[in-house]
Every structure is written in structure tokens, then in C-alpha cells.
Design goal:
The complex is a heterodimer. Chain A is an alpha+beta fold. Chain A has one domain: 3-Layer(aba) Sandwich (Glutaredoxin), CATH 3.40.30.10. Chain A contains five helices and four strands, in the order αβααβββαα. In chain A, strands 2-1-3-4 form a four-stranded mixed β-sheet, with helices on one face. Chain A is elongated, with a radius of gyration of 16 Å. Chain B is of the alpha/beta class. Chain B folds into five domains: 105 residues, Glutaredoxin, CATH 3.40.30; 211 residues, NADH-ubiquinone oxidoreductase 51kDa subunit (Rossmann fold, 3-Layer(aba) Sandwich), CATH 3.40.50; 84 residues, Ubiquitin-like (UB roll); 90 residues, NADH-ubiquinone oxidoreductase 51kDa subunit, iron-sulphur binding domain (de novo design (two linked rop proteins)); 56 residues, Alpha-Beta Plaits (2-Layer Sandwich). Chain B is 39% helix and 14% strand. Chain B contains 23 helices and 17 strands. The longest helix of chain B has 20 residues. The radius of gyration of chain B is 27 Å and the shape is globular. Classes of the chains: A alpha+beta, B alpha/beta. The interface between A and B is large, with 41 and 40 residues.
Chain lengths: 124, 596
């Protein structure tokens, strides 16, 4: 390697990956239901889509994507909860990888929750 | 990309507790559950909480699994990694709050007051993957320095930061570099002292095993600053994992053009080679180390001339400790002011301590200078186990002294420790409780020094041995009060006349225990008793006739037939035959045997 630019490229390629290994209270937590009902209805592709997106854009220090057990609303799986520090939890239901990407772009990156996919919208 | 990283500690401590097998089983189970594309297993360096190894952390949750056994792995994989249900009973118990919520690792007593600067990457990255090091801004400092700073500027930054040598002496690093830079020669050298001879110290080992690239990068920066093109890392052969990881790191750095010719197209050449030690504590001494690299028996040389003028192969050389070097890249990246904002007025930055002895949380801790001994022992260390009382903490290994309870609130820094009769040393911190005999401790360290003395100079070769003989007399119950005067005389002689710091500091454990625990010495000499109950020659094992049931178990256990008595009659120990092995006391089911 002969230049600082090349070093930077390698750093950016790996930053996302190593960034996953940190933990702090200011992180936004994205929790994906991965109990049996979740997995059966396709939660794993949702989890990997979100996790890959966060790492590719080097946002792992700000956003952590983790699986969790049974949330209790089995008929609405796959469920994704977004917990931002100091804000109320937003629960997205019946997710798939495409919807997850929309939530990533609009809610996680731009701070605007996608109301039509939330549990609150469903109950109306 | 993996959505989950499982970090398994691959440091020497956890490896010797079986972390290798755990890692292999983990990979097997992950494959069995079809998770190999989602979950990555990473072998890392030391997390620091060695008392709870083998250690495994699952990210991004930050779940800290402690004392992991191979048979726990299938459950962790199927419950946590597949279904996201953390296995609470296997977590480090301090991370599970009373209401069952999980406390982040950073909030636990052990980690709360720590500030990992030198240990930044240990336990986070895979030390055998240079790209992960680069991913945490590795080699960016070297790149910045080579492309946009002059050597004098680099030296000034290190001077301004206030960094002092972490090997024990605490000499200002920037000043050492400045001296070497000022001397002109056709070749100069950068050496790294990775000998780490102090018993109980493993700070440098953890950096070498967990983040070897930081040492390489720092040496290259130092080479640029002083005008050297060749570096040597002198690492003790008793650290095979460190040697292996260093070799891998050097090969990778060369492959990526970060070591070798014309680094970052700047015209600067720098390469590094390893030299293995062969088991001599004295080779951790600056000039003995260089003499050893030159192919001779490790013996120190008189100074002046100092190595900055005539060091390795008689050329200007700087020798820096591993931990000192581990701070360099971050000082360049974050600035001298950042480093100087931590610590005390004369001791800037942080220090890594290897916490051992009678304390709950043994392991590696990194704390800002100025943290008190009380905070280290009671908060970070979790206190003394078994309800025992703190007696003293020994810092600086065989060159250091002990800090008694009266100085529990001393803020730890280079100058404060010297003022109370100890020294920072390389970072070994051994906690002792009421069951430790201070005379025995002084004897232990002197046994070590006598063994390791190279023999070149008379004061050390003969003086340490004479001091040890006196201590042996005292612990055997044959000491006299004149012996204490002789000890102090010999100590003064060694301190002012030895050729190198091994001899000059060998009396320290004796002097400091005499200063704070003279009553123990007097008890050994006048009363012929060891108050802590350690020195075997001064102990008698006795049987309490009221408690003895005459079961004869002790008499049958005794290897020397020293116990006599008839069945159902109280037994008696013959003091002339007793070898004080303690086997009878262990066997007695009625607590009838005691030592005094």
C-alpha cells in the first residue's frame, strides 16, 4: 500500500465490522424477534438485512441490531422494535427485508418513523 | 457480513483454561445450526477479567459469558445465537441485575473506573488480522506522521503529552527520543523491551498477544522521529503466543507495505526483527538487553555513555517498553493535550496493572494515574475474599516496595509511590491480606534477585546473597537485632554501588517491609514467632486435648510418625519429629489440630 487513501479504504471496509463490537447507552437499539414464531415467519432475513445495512454504512457504533426472544405478539411476527434513548419504543410488525430497508432509510437514518408499518397503525 | 460477532479470548490465561476447544466447539455448533453466514467467531486478546476465564462476549448485545465450559456451548448457540434468548445463568453474575435486567459491561464494578487506552484493542479485534487493526484507525498515525509531520514535530508532541516510560523508571519518553535524535550516526536503532521479567506481571504480554500491530506502528513512528531504519523487539521466549502473533503481525505489515522500504511513498524505510530472550531477568535491563542482542551474555554496561549516544552496536539507540509504545499512535491521532488531560500533574495518561494475589477480581486493569489504591483494591478488585483484612499491596515486583493500609488513599502516580517507599514498576500489583508474612515476602523477592543476579558487579553478586542469608536466619528463628542493622547497611551499600538497577533496587522490598512492618521482624527475632502463621520453622502444630477424640486418623496420616496416642485417648505431636507439613490438620475431622 502506498498511500493514505488506500489505508482509508481498508479502514472503511473494516470499520463497520469492528464497530459491531462496542456497546454504549447512547446507541439506538434495533431488536428483532427471533423466537420460534419469528424465525418461522422469516425474521432471519430481516435481521441480516438490517445488520448488513448498518455495517455497510459504518453506523454500528450508533445502532446495534440484536435478536431477542418471544415478544408475545406472535401473530404479528416478524417484529422489529426500535428503541432510541429518551424516546418511546416503536414497534414494527409483519416485516420483510424490503420494509426493513425502508425503516432503515427513513427511521434509522433520517429519524422519521414509518407509521404505516407500526403496531399502532394496525390497531386503528 | 455477520450480524453477530462472538469474541472468544485467546490470551495465554484463557487459552490455558481451554478457550481453544471452546472456540472450535462454537464453530461446530454454529455450523450445525446453519448460522455460519450470520455469526462470526473472533479470537481476540485479553479482556482483562482473567479471574473469570474462559471469557466469551457476544456482540452487539455485549453479553459477557464467564467461566465458559465446552458443554455450555450448544445451549448458548441454540438459545442465544439462534433465538436471541440470552442464557442468564452463564453470564458474569455482576451483569445480571436483581430485576433480571442486563447491566452493560462498562457499568460493572470491574470496568467502571477503567479507561482502556493502551489496551484499547485487546479483546476487541482479532490480533492476527491486520485489517481489523486498520479498521480501528491502525497505521493512520504512521501515515499522518510520514506524510505531514517533521521528525522534530513528532518528538515535540510526545514531549508535550507528558508520557513517561511504563517499564518502571518513568523517564520522559519525549526526552529520550530527543537525545537520540540529536546524535548523528550512520545507523540508529529502535528497540522494544518485551522481556517483562517481573514475577506476576503480564501487561506487556497482553498487549503483544492482543494488539501486536500497535507496537510495530509505534516503533516505526519512533524510528522516523529519531532517524532510525531498523527496530528490534526483544521478547522473552516464555511468551510463545506473543512470539507467534508478533511474527504474523510483522509478516502482514510487510505484505501491506507498512514495514520495509519507502513506507507510504515517503522515502522512509523501517523494518523490525524479533530477538528471543532466554530466561534472564537481567536482560530486561536496558544495557544488558542490548548486550544480549549483540550476541553476548546479558550483562549491563556502565553509563555514561547512555544508549541514546552509544547503545546497540555502539550506535544511538532508544529502548522503550511495550506499554509505553502502545500509547504512541493514539497520542499522535488524538493530540498531546488529550493524553495530558488524563492523570495527575506529573504523571500523565493511564497505567496498566496486573492485579493479583488476595483479591476477588484478579486480572488486567487500566486506570488513569491518580486513582487511589483503595479504588483499585476495593472497587475494581472487588475487595479481599473470605472476609480477610487488607494488609499491604506490593508494586514494582522485586524492585519495588509495599504500600500498607495507612496509605490506602494515596493517588497512584510515579512520584507519590516513591515518596512512600515503593515505586510504580512495570505494573505488577500484588494484594496481601492478614495471612501474609511480610518477612517471608521480602525473602521471596530476594531469592528471586539472588537467582537472577548476573554476577558482574560485586555489590549485587555478593550483597544480595548476604542479605538473603540474613532473612533466612530470621525466618528460621535464629535472627538477632544486629541482623536488622546489617540488613540496612548492606541495603545502603547495594543501592549506591551496584552497576545496574537490578542490584540498586534489590534492597527495596526489604527496606519497605522494615519501614512499615518492623514489628513483624522483631516478633520473628525476639519472640521467635511468625504473627501471620507462615514461616514454618516458627510454627508448631499442636493438638487440643479437649477436642481430640482419639480417632488416630492424624497419627496414621503423619509421614514422619510424629503423632502418638492410644485409641480414644487425646493424641500428642512430637515437636522434634514434626516436619510441619500440615497433613494432620487437614485430615482432622474435629478441628482439634491448630498452629501457633
Amino acid at each position: 500500500m502506498k498511500s493514505l487513501e488506500e489505508l482509508k479504504a481498508i479502514r472503511e471496509r473494516n470499520q463497520g465490522k469492528v464497530g459491531v463490537r462496542s456497546e454504549n447507552e447512547t446507541q439506538t437499539r434495533v431488536v428483532v424477534g427471533m423466537a420460534t414464531c419469528g424465525i418461522a415467519s422469516g425474521a432471519r432475513p430481516v435481521l441480516t438485512a438490517l445488520s448488513d445495512a448498518v455495517q455497510k454504512e459504518s453506523l454500528a457504533e450508533k445502532i446495534s441490531v440484536t435478536p431477542t426472544g418471544c415478544i408475545g405478539l406472535c401473530q404479528y411476527e416478524p417484529i422489529v422494535e426500535v428503541i432510541e434513548p429518551g424516546k418511546e419504543k416503536v414497534t414494527y410488525i409483519k416485516m420483510d427485508p424490503e420494509k426493513a430497508m425502508e425503516v432503515f432509510e427513513r427511521h434509522l437514518k433520517q429519524g422519521q418513523a414509518v407509521a404505516k408499518y407500526t403496531l399502532a397503525a394496525q390497531q386503528l | 457480513m455477520y450480524r453477530s460477532h462472538v469474541l472468544v479470548c485467546g490470551g495465554t490465561g484463557c487459552t490455558s483454561s481451554g478457550s481453544q476447544k471452546i472456540r472450535e466447539r462454537l464453530e461446530e455448533e454454529i455450523k450445525r445450526n446453519g448460522l455460519e453466514n450470520e455469526v462470526g467467531v473472533v479470537k481476540t486478546g485479553c479482556f482483562g477479567l482473567c479471574a473469570l476465564g474462559p471469557i466469551m462476549i457476544v456482540y452487539p448485545e455485549g453479553s459477557f459469558y464467564a467461566m465458559v465450559k465446552e458443554e455450555d456451548i450448544p445451549e448458548i448457540v441454540s438459545e442465544h445465537l439462534l433465538k436471541g434468548r440470552v442464557v442468564k445463568r452463564l453470564l458474569y453474575d455482576e451483569t445480571v441485575k436483581s430485576n433480571d435486567e442486563i447491566l452493560p459491561l462498562q457499568e460493572t464494578q470491574f470496568y467502571k473506573k477503567q479507561h482502556r487506552v493502551a489496551l484499547r484493542n485487546c479483546g476487541v479485534i482479532n490480533p492476527e488480522n491486520i485489517e481489523e487493526y486498520i479498521g480501528t484507525r491502525g497505521y493512520e498515525a504512521l501515515g499522518t506522521v510520514l506524510t505531514s509531520k517533521k521528525p522534530e514535530e513528532v518528538i515535540q508532541i510526545i514531549l508535550d503529552s507528558g508520557l513517561r516510560g511504563r517499564g518502571g523508571a518513568g523517564f520522559p519518553t519525549g526526552l529520550k527520543w530527543k537525545f537520540a535524535a540529536a546524535n548523528h550516526a550512520d545507523q540508529k536503532y529502535v528497540c522494544c523491551n518485551a522481556d517483562e521479567g517481573d514475577p506476576g506481571a503480564f501487561m506487556d504480554r497482553s498487549v503483544l498477544e492482543g494488539d501486536p500491530h500497535v507496537v510495530l506502528e509505534a516503533m516505526a513512528i519512533a524510528g522516523y522521529a529519531i532517524g532510525a531504519s531498523q527496530g528490534y523487539i526483544y521478547v522473552r521466549a516464555e511468551y510463545p503466543i506473543a512470539v507467534e502473533r508478533l511474527n504474523i503481525a510483522i509478516d502482514q505489515a510487510r505484505e501491506y507495505g507498512l514495514l520495509g522500504k519507502n513506507i507510504f511513498d515517503s522515502g522512509f524505510d523501517f523494518d523490525i526483527e524479533l530477538r528471543l530472550g532466554a530466561g534472564a531477568f537481567v536482560c530486561g535491563e536496558e544495557t544488558a538487553l542490548m548486550t544480549s542482542i549483540e550476541g553476548n551474555r546479558g550483562e549491563p554496561r556502565p553509563r555514561p555513555p547512555f544508549p541514546a549516544l552509544k547503545g546497540l552496536f555502539q550506535k544511538p539507540t532508544i529502548l522503550n517498553n511495550v506499554e509505553t509504545l502502545a500509547n504512541i499512535p493514539q497520542i499522535i491521532l488524538n493530540g498531546a493535550d488529550w493524553f495530558a488531560s488524563m492523570g495527575t500533574e506529573k504523571s500523565k495518561g493511564t497505567k496498566v496493572f496486573a492485579l493479583g494475589g488476595k483479591v476477588k477480581n484478579t486480572g488486567l486493569v487500566e486506570i488513569p494515574m491518580g486513582t487511589t489504591l483503595r479504588e483499585i483494591v476495593e472497587e475494581i478488585g472487588g475487595g479481599i475474599p473470605n472476609g480477610k483484612k487488607f494488609k499491604a499491596a506490593q508494586t514494582g515486583g522485586p524492585s519495588g516496595g509495599c504500600i500498607p493500609a495507612e496509605h490506602f488513599d494515596v493517588p497512584i502516580d510515579y512520584d507519590n509511590l516513591i515518596a512512600i517507599g515503593s515505586m510504580m514498576g512495570s505494573g505488577g500489583l500484588i494484594v496481601m491480606d492478614e495471612d501474609t508474612c511480610m518477612v517471608d515476602i521480602a525473602k521471596f523477592f530476594l531469592e528471586f534477585t539472588v537467582d537472577e543476579s548476573c554476577g558482574k558487579c560485586t555489590p549485587c553478586r555478593i550483597g544480595t546473597r548476604r542479605m538473603l542469608e540474613i532473612l533466612e536466619k530470621i525466618t528460621n528463628g535464629q535472627g538477632t537485632m544486629e541482623d536488622l542493622d546489617k540488613l540496612e547497611d548492606l541495603a545502603a551499600h547495594l543501592k549506591s554501588n551496584s552497576l545496574c538497577a537490578l542490584g540498586q533496587t534489590a534492597p527495596n522490598p526489604v527496606l519497605s517491609t522494615l519501614r512499615y512492618f518492623k514489628d513483624e521482624y522483631i516478633a520473628h527475632i525476639v519472640d521467635k514467632k511468625c504473627p501471620a502463621g507462615v514461616c514454618k520453622a516458627l510454627l508448631s502444630y499442636k493438638i487440643d486435648a479437649d477436642k481430640c477424640k482419639g480417632c488416630t486418623l492424624c497419627a496414621r496420616t503423619c509421614p514422619n510418625d510424629a503423632i502418638s496416642g492410644s485409641v480414644r485417648e487425646p493424641h500428642v505431636i512430637n515437636q522434634d519429629k514434626c516436619v510441619k507439613c500440615g497433613a494432620c490438620m487437614e485430615k482432622c475431622r474435629f478441628g482439634a489440630i491448630y498452629k501457633e
